[in-house]
Amino acid sequence: xxxxxxxxxEILILLGCGDKIRSEAEVxxxxxxxxxxxxxxxxxxxxxFHKFEEHDTVHxxxxxxxxxxxxxxxxxxxxxxxLENPHTSTVSLARNHDAP
Length: 100
Prior knowledge:
Layout: H1 5-15, H2 24-34, H3 42-55, H4 72-84, H5 90-96
Helix pairs in contact: 1-3, 2-3
């Protein structure tokens, strides 16, 4: 489950931020009691805390690695062509749209 910024901040507040007033297990139990529909693990609390300590943010960090091969426009074009002719091969779809 992906937590938004607000619950991540709440987890840091429950931890006592840099002072670590509560343990990760205690914070996990408190959060899960308050939000039973959004259960988190002790590992999630740990990751949020360490990300905040290392990067001073609770936002998602940019991912490393290669960019996606297809953008949304190419995906839509491929889907449209497939809907128009469902018997089109994947090889010809890739060739027609410069897809890898």
